[in-house]
Amino acid sequence: MAVYIGLDIGGTKIMVASADRGGNILRRERTATSTSLEEDLTNINSMIAEVAKEDKIMGMGAAIGGPLDWEQGIVSPLHQPAWRNVPLKAIMEEKWGCPFHVDVDTNVAALGEYRWGGVSAKRFLYLTLSTGMGGGLLINGEIYRGQNGAHPEVGHQSIPFQSSNSLAVQCECGAPDCLEALVSGNGIRRIYGKPAEELAAKEWDEVSYNLGQGLRNMAVLYVPDIIRIGGGVAVGGGNNFIQAAKTVMEEHLKLVPAPQVELSYLGYDTALRGAIAMAF
Ligand SMILES: [Zn+2]
């Protein structure tokens, strides 16, 4: 039988799955990300062997944090310091003898949500709110890329924000007022001194207001049909959080039609399923 392999290589965990020609996941494995590149690569290869069994691997796709060169498949994920200028595509194609494609995790997640989450919109924006924050924009199902293939960084736009601890708002990129610094898991920890799952209702109100202002900017610039939002913070906040942010967006959006705003359909598997879509 022919199988397709998807990899989701994150800063805390690595997930690998095999899927059949219909995209149904057959087998899956996960492990914690280590602090050694060699150990991570060894783990990845043994998990691939485990999920592929005796089947023929037709292709592989991988999601990983940026920055990276998607054409050459050279990766340097910011939150994995052991991984610097790793020629992942060349390493994996040499080892496994099948095509291998890698892209920024938020682009891959957008592809997953589009292909397996029932999206048919021409202009589709997917946002991830997890440790950090990012997005992937698809036009007719194709990833939008910037100059020289650069990935648009929607988390690093400035917004008019509300915060009960505004002195603690500081983005890891160096700017003082990024959306990511207000609505990502790391940003929330910095501002409120606790993880998103422990936020009080009033604190969630601030986070949803700030996300809503970011959605308003993205809606007014991209005018997408649908914005879907996933990642641990969004999934944890749930539909109430997303709806509150959507209301703020709509209140401030005047000249363009409001997009649909929804919680991710695929939850924690969005990037893994997108990696399988890339393997196809
Ligand atoms: Zn920033």
Topology:
Elements: E1 2-9, E2 13-19, E3 25-32, H1 37-52, E4 56-64, E5 68-69, E6 74-75, E7 86-87, H2 88-96, E8 100-104, H3 105-116, E9 123-129, E10 133-139, E11 142-143, H4 180-183, H5 185-192, H6 201-222, E12 226-230, H7 232-252, E13 260-263, H8 270-279
Helix pairs in contact: 3-8, 6-7
The protein binds zinc ion (ZN).
Return Rg in Å: 19 Å
**Which distinct ligands sit in these coordinates?**
zinc ion
Strand order of the largest sheet: 3-2-1-4-8
Helix and strand succession?
EEEHEEEEHEHEEEHHHEHEH
Mean pLDDT: 96
> Per the principal axes of the C-alpha atoms, what is the gross shape?
globular
How would you characterize this protein structure?
The structure is a single chain. This protein is an alpha/beta fold. Helices cover 36% and strands 24% of the residues. The protein has helices spanning 37-52, 88-96, 105-116, 180-183, 185-192, 201-222, 232-252, 270-279; strands at residues 2-9, 13-19, 25-32, 56-64, 68-69, 74-75, 86-87, 100-104, 123-129, 133-139, 142-143, 226-230, 260-263. It has a 5-stranded mixed beta sheet. A 5-stranded mixed beta sheet has the order 11-10-9-12-13, sandwiched between helices. Strands 5-6-7 form a 3-stranded antiparallel beta sheet. The longest helix has 22 residues, at 201-222. The two termini are 15 Å apart. Zinc ion binds at residues 156, 171, 173, 175, 178, 180.
